[in-house]
Amino acid sequence: MAKLNVSRRKFLVGGILVGGALAVGYGFLREGEPDNAALTATTEEGEIALNAWVKVDRNGIVTVAVPRAEMGQGVYTALAMLVAEEMEANFDDIVVEQAPIADIYANITMIKDSLPFSDGHHQGEETVGAWGMAKVARTLGVQATGGSTSVRDAWIPMREAGATAKAMLVQAAARDWDVPAGEITVENGVISHAASGASGGFGDFVERAASEAVTTTPTLKDSRDFKLIGKPQMRVDIPEKVDGTAVFGVDVEVEGMAHAAVKLAPVFGGTLASHDAEAVRGMPGVIAVVPFDIGVAVVANSFWRAKTAVEALPASFNDGPAKDYSSAGILTLLEESLDSDDARVYSEDGDAAAAITASAQPVHAVYKAPFLAHACMEPMNCTAKVTETGVEIWMPNQAPTLVKWFAEKFADVPAENVTVHTTLLGGGFGRRAEIDLVYLAVTIAKAVKGRPVKLIWTRENDIQHDIYRPAAVSRFDGALGPDGRITGWANRIASQSVSGSFTERLLPWAAMDMPDNTTSEGAADIPYEFANRMVDHVPVKLPIPVGFWRSVGHSYNAFFTESFMDEMAHAAGKDPIEFRLAHLEGHRDFADVLRKLAEVSRWSEPLPPGRGRGVALHESFSSIVGQVVEVTANGSKEVTVDKVYCVVDCGAVVNPDTVTAQMEGGILFGLTAALYGEIEIEGGAVVNSNFPDYEMVRLAGCPEIEVHLAQSGRRLGGIGEVATPPIAPALANALFAATGERIRELPISKNGFIA
Amino acid sequence: MLKLDINGASYDVDVEDDTPLLWVLRDTVNLKGTKFGCGIAACGACTVHLDGAPVRSCSYPVADAVGAKITTIEGIGGDKLSAVQQAWIEEQVPQCGYCQSGMIMAVSALLAENPAPSDDDIAESITNICRCGTYPRIKKAIKRAAQLQGGD
Ligand code: FES
Ligand code: FES
């Protein structure tokens, strides 16, 4: 991103004194604005409008405003480390604060990657199309956490802010001591001048530093000199998560607050037909019954009373357009759509069809993946207070700008009277980028005029009214040459479009029939070199809401492509790792990951009968992850996942322990899906309701996981989602090795395997 | 009015007898460290101790808790961190953290009864769900907590 910042738009890093603290901000200027506009603009509360990335107070405490949601991915710690590194601050003196919304925090990378007209996955930020998109993202001012982009976006700005703060403090000290700034050193939060013996803390120079000239081009440290970055640090958000004091959305307490529970139309797109409010009005604690288009809420003086009453409330619903759909029917429909003429090409090279026709023994396979729910551990919730003139929202969310826009719209109040508080998130996985809970909470709160209302969904609400990972079907035709290499690869995917569904839900005015890279990500951009390749996608419109689910399109495409690579290796009579390596000429970083994986997993050592190893290699969000799974399957098809080896190359590593944790978490998230994950739809409504019928891997089923970092020096990649895609194919390939049975549909229970 | 003994303090609560203990803790007594995850005793997020034994409070009527010593995450360490909490920090267990109160309560109860649990003991008794997948670290942290408590 640095290139863009410097060459394509004006930016500014500067300091100002706010409430006695030095604040260093980072801003983007609009055309025609004077250079100091950003820093002099203030909000009503007297804070800097563009916000500070870094604040240093008189006691030397450094507050880092983290413009991202903490949902367990360690982002508070990682971003604070970037600042501390360049500032030479003592990491113990760093305090992290959730940043308020500001347009400058637009998570440019994520929006750019997920919008349909982004220009592919391998061209980086520097291309013209991407730049245009970045501009749109910034204009929209969308601040979002997703797409594993937090550290990628912040890598330069956060460090520049730290470097600037340090430079200003050093200049102030130099003036104070009357010594050349160049002779001053900073270490561990102490500023010193060796020759004169002078030394002081950051806090001593705060006021003076604020009047120092702004450094517009701070010099960043060479990565060889990093002291914090790349070394494991204790996460700053962990202590409050072990003593019960962490405040999640469900824990929000607002003066005078009431509680709400809902009953929603079971069929997607359905509406409330009738209800009998009188039947529950006399129940304990009931304050109001609030009907709305898609359901009805009870507001009460405790959540339990609200839930009890809403369950007792007689209500009937009109079926929605989804009434005639079932998940089984949808998979059939998707498979039939593979023959449609409406496919959109995402990758084409040579003539795949001709190569396949010419092949003596083409390999053919069709793969399927089901709808999946997010099932964040913290049930969905939103607290809203709506008055005549304004709205205030407390919510664990991944997209505060969207929340703000829609709260404004739903409450019908002026934009300046909308306040959004983002709490800690008890899991996000893409689900908390949606605004359906904002709609419900604002609608309910409006009805009780001025009284804050906390809406909590039950787990049943959550499983049955999620915005799902779409079901997908993928067909492959592959041809092998006499040398055992792939000469033709044709892959057609059929699914709903996530970007399309998201846009239709949120920005219907912008909904267009546009290409959607998420549908083919992880299929159109695989690294293997084939002479002839065709990857296309058939978009299928269905009345089922689909959205971003940890790793999005990669979550199914990795299963499809890496399973089929295994089929091709088998057809060629080659070792799966050797076979992949043979198609990775010119992709040293991918090959390195595979070789390291082969080594750490002792790939070539035989396993006893009944056990098997499988491999998968997948790039997503600019990180390469390879995994080897070891399984045991007995005669009754009972499966134990014994061990997972994981090698990740995500470019520069900020906090290695967080990378390891995200690999473990991402693997178990994907393993849960591969072993159990299936949302079943009947008559347009979800059949599953809670954990026993939407099962999760638990401690007893958790394999040993060994994570290794590989560093090729490639550009910074994400970590939050990247471990999820490869686990399903690695598992399926291992089951093939153990049993000879090829799994072409998830979860593995579709093949009669029992986890 | 029901009288509850929570973390050594006494509370009078005016709720229906069949209200789950979870919601009394969270909404009436305002101890929000105990979490709601499923409401049907399937995930363990709401685990508290009744006279030292682990109970899934989302499915436990408050009236049945009268007379018992109730311990929640807020009371498990007294005024410092318990060995289990300490181990949780040392092994950097939590990700989102939402399940961890329940995990820590379940593990504390296990270690109180079985100070040096085997892998099988752990797998059998810790059935809580962690959606973030912190199980590998939980396993390590349980062993470490056992050591810290001097049970190993
Ligand atoms: S909330 Fe009680 S077990 Fe899940
Ligand atoms: S840490 Fe997130 S659910 Fe366990």
From TrEMBL, chain A:
- Record Pfam families: MoCoBD_1 (PF02738), MoCoBD_2 (PF20256)
Q: Name one GO molecular function term.
A: oxidoreductase activity
Q: Which residues form the Aldehyde oxidase/xanthine dehydrogenase a/b hammerhead domain?
A: 243-321
Which top-rank group of organisms is this from?
Bacteria
Membrane-crossing segments per the record: none
What protein name is recorded for this chain? Molybdopterin-dependent oxidoreductase
UniProtKB/TrEMBL annotation, chain B:
Q: Is Iron included in the keywords of this UniProt record?
A: yes
Task: Give the InterPro entries listed for this entry.
Answer: 2Fe-2S-bd, 2Fe-2S-bd_dom_sf, 2Fe-2S_ferredoxin-like_sf, 2Fe-2S_ferredoxin-type, 2Fe2S_fd_BS, Beta-grasp_dom_sf, Diverse_Oxidoreductases
Q: Does the record bear Oxidoreductase in its keywords?
A: yes
Q: Which SUPFAM superfamilies match?
A: 2Fe-2S ferredoxin-like, CO dehydrogenase ISP C-domain like
Source organism, top-level taxon: Bacteria
Alphabetically, the GO molecular function entries are:
2 iron, 2 sulfur cluster binding; metal ion binding; oxidoreductase activity
Output the PROSITE patterns linked to this UniProt entry. 2FE2S_FER_1, 2FE2S_FER_2
- Ranges for domain 2Fe-2S ferredoxin-type come to 1-76
What keywords is this UniProt entry annotated with? 2Fe-2S, Iron, Iron-sulfur, Metal-binding, Oxidoreductase
Listed name of the protein: 2Fe-2S iron-sulfur cluster binding domain-containing protein
Species per Swiss-Prot/TrEMBL record: Sneathiella chungangensis
